[in-house]
Amino acid sequence: MKKNKKIVLHVILFLLLTILSSAFQSVIWYQFFGHFVAPYFSFILFTYFGLDKDSWRSLIYCYGIVYLNSFFTYSSIGMLYMSSMVSFVFLFLVKNRVYWPGPAYFTIMTSAGLFLFHLTYIITSFTSESHTTPLMIFQRLLQIAMTSVCAYFFYEIIKKLDTSLKSSTLTEIKGEAHG
User: Which of 127, 137, 151, 152 has the highest count of CB atoms within 10 angstroms of its CB?
Assistant: First the structure.
């Protein structure tokens, strides 16, 4: 029963963290910094779950993050899902080919995934919407840079929160090596 409580607490904690990061990046940031571009804080969580969890759990978490983030933006949920899932597939493919734990890898993957997100969003907007999204190249590149810097520093915090709520595993039984 204790394991189930940790799982529920884990889901609730990261659900609240996603809501808080989305609210901060889309509402509170502009109260303090005006129209200066905000880092995409919820994409940091998206990248973390895309890289850290097994395929089904990461897909469920990432879908949830995009859904919750859609409440804080004017973008359609279809556009967000399309762009996010292209980034998710990219993270999944790269993670299965090249992976090393740590904030440097996480930062690289966050910036590459967010660049792909923006690129997919622009292409999808130009091909499917009558009122296309503006290019805003400088703002998008600045957002990628700021999000990457934040990702480097938030990686350890997110990792500690995640590992503190994991259920303890059985101790490994070690045998002697007989020659």
Answer: 151
